[in-house]
Amino acid sequence: MALFERPKKEKNYAMVIVQDRCVDCKACEVACKAMWEVPDGKLNYRTKVLDIDKVENSERKMIFMPILCNQCDNPPCVWVCPTGASYKRKSDGIVLVTPNMCIGCKACMEACPYDARYYNEELGAVDKCTFCLPRLESGLEPACVQTCVGGSRNFGDLNDPNSVVSKLLKEATNYWVLKPEDGTFPNDFYISNSAKVE
Amino acid sequence: ADAREELKPYKPDKVTFNFCEMCFWNCTEKVFVNDGKVRKLEGNDKSPLNFGKLCAKGQAGIKTLYDDNRLKTPLIRVGERGEGKWKKVSWEEAFEFAAKKFKEVIDKYGPETIGLEMHGTGEPGIHRLFEVLGGTTNFAIPAYSQCTGSRDVGFYYTFGAALGGHEPFDLSNSRYIIMLGRNETESLHVSELYHFSKAIGNKAKIVYVDPRYTHTAAKADKYLQIKPGTDAAFVLALINVMVTEDLINHDFVDKYTTGYDKLKPHIAKYTPQWAQEQTGIKAEEIIQIAREISSFAPNCIIVPPRRSTRYGDDTQFARAIAIANVLLGNWFQPGGFFKPNKIKVPNADMPDVEESKYAQLAQQKNAANAVLSLTNLPTTTQEIVGVLGLDNILWEAIRTQKPYPIKAMISYATNPLFHTGDSNKVKEAISKLDFYMVVDILPWEHTLYADIVFPESTYLEMYAALKSIGWKYPYVNFREPAVDTIYDTRDIWAIAHGIAKHMGLGEFFPFSDAKGVLYSSLNQMPKDQRDKLLKDGVISLGPIPEDADLSGDIDPKVAYQKMLDAYKKAPFNPYPIALGEDVSFNTGSGKIDIYSDSLAGNSFDPLPNYTPPNKPKKQNEFRLIFGRVAVHTHARTQDNEWLLEHYDDNNVWINPQDAKSINIKDGDKVVLVKGNLKSLYPVKAKVTDKIIQGTVFIVHGWGRFSPYTTRCYEKGVSDAEFCSNDTDPLSGAAAFLNSFVSIEKV
């Protein structure tokens, strides 16, 4: 299924979030924090879950929204980086920051429509989600996916039709990306009313 | 090893096996160590208990290990009780001191005057010491009287079985789920929540009933804001509709139950219209829900709430829920209640505690059980209490020193100043003790009152005895230390061993620590089992058949049959009734007692009746209710740095109408007031219609007053100070929510 016109990659890593199944338990945030030693005392996580309260047809609703880097195929953070510290890997599309090349100008943080980056004082550089690339290379899932208690977060390669993410998108009656109008071509997809998630 | 710099493949230096002690679900985990420090905790994916997942609390166990506020050496009190002035002592001195104190109490008053409360994996260690000291049944696990007691008793009278702490609810295979104040997503256990979330994915219909709109309400198809204390009326009306409209599962009721004929006339008065008056939920809603859930029988469930210590009629409420489920015929059925399975593990080889001279002395004295003699509980209830104890009544026995003085008390990994309904009474009780011993990890409030404090190692620094608990998928958990002890701490078996030895009772503790106890069990295990445990960190009886495919692609009947066929070949079976096996019940009748002769014989209602909740005496008094957030366990994680980042202070939820009537605005600083009692630290008012009118809500575990737990010190307000200290006469368990408070602006 052609989702968007995107550059060809050896691997097309993607996150598919079953929004119905997020229960806002924060396991993902703490797992991510432990894994990547995000500094203590601030809520500057690489990923977070937003609580959205609203009233619809006089009925109260509360929606939980996991947010992380979208590893965009058209990444504004990379385009604005003056030093080349932020870059996108051609092989799998993961957007990374080379800390010792980062001058901390925070232009990328401004450019990111998803508020997915933060400045890490301990590191002296901007830091962000890497889809847990070092874990992937050891055969582990991203830390947030591995521990997701609701089974909301799913990860895999969209190039592989048998991957959990390909299957989820294929079967979903409804999927979306965040802020499509920004033309970023995200690799995080959200689905709803989906069954069959393991 | 900073993976960020070079993005090399992630590789821990060392992986050890463990199970989580951040809550009592005890999820199986792996511990990743780098550079000699625990860096990451990860659910063990070979475990059928948590499928490789850990919650936020579990992930944050690292910060409890490395909490610099931890108890670091044994401490002996030098100031007044409550002052928190101690001297550091060696383990030898500490053992000597405790041994001397226990001896004094036993010599002066007798062994039956020792009490114990305990919670967690170390229970068998401290309980063994208690028994060797001649301890009687004056002990308690608060999980009964402060939490699941009334529910368990209600089910015991109906099915002849308590549900236990690892609840047998088959949520992932359920098509219709009603939850009454069971806040699954915030008072969470990993696998239960995972299964609940699977039900959401399967589009199971979820009805959530609570005076407060919780995160679980957010996940429900239908949320009903019920008047507090009226849940039994709602359930009785469901039964009324099922009976009146003949929606019951007759095959099941005929085959497995007694007393349905008596239920029919009994339930007639509990009409939906009547229930509407009580609950505030429309009669049509109740009728519709009763019809809907019945249409999915038996693959549906009305979930009996976990902490069912609410209004004092909780056992009868649990009976009502049990009976409603019986009418759906969902016992040992997919989507209803499953049958727990357990792997037997050998006990460590230790001498019989009854041989101890103090145990024999206690037996000779034949002293009445202090706790039970303060109650008037039926014998059937006493069978359950004998195993788990009544913590609320135990503290009352100490406070009143009746029927005889209890003079020594041990709190192991429990904080009585935070789990009771009236913590000031506990303070008074402690003042009556000759000796108060605490074993804990952190210097919580109750340690301020202790005569001696033993610092326990955290679960990441020690071994533990094998743990096998009955659940849907049987498993055995295994714990080994990931790192050396950071401070001068020991495991509970070593602490018990040391005290026993100094009392001349060392022979009853042939192993000097938990490692010895563990390996004594391991060495008796079949080799293949032991090897598997040491290699994988868990034993399970797999492979586990897949849940029924309820995605809608195939007929649910076919989907269930496919799953049941797979279970026919599995080495364990959670659905014996669905598979046509003969099942009998541990009731007098051998059947499920809808009508309970046993209750009738003890002058209790043999069929559940409705008791309306109490009412406030004054205007602008609000019922106080409390609950949990997903990132804290009880009153034991509030000093954890990572969890504090998500929730670091509680606030008072109040309905906008109520707030208006007492002129409180959102964000105002307020205190709770009850008689002469005023909460210690002001908290913010949260004005929201998520809480029903007439009721205020706070999160449990706050109002921290130990200056040594610096991260949460002086934060929040404590429910334990303001709740009711009532008792359910049928279970002996606590009833916390009968209390009213007023709110004052600061």
UniProtKB/TrEMBL annotation, chain A:
Pfam family, one: Fer4_11
Recorded superkingdom: Bacteria
Keyword tags: 4Fe-4S, Iron, Iron-sulfur, Metal-binding
Iron-sulfur in keyword set: yes
PANTHER family: PROTEIN NRFC, PROTEIN NRFC HOMOLOG
GO MF annotation terms: 4 iron, 4 sulfur cluster binding; metal ion binding
Name assigned to this protein: Tetrathionate reductase subunit B
Domain 4Fe-4S ferredoxin-type: 13-41, 93-122
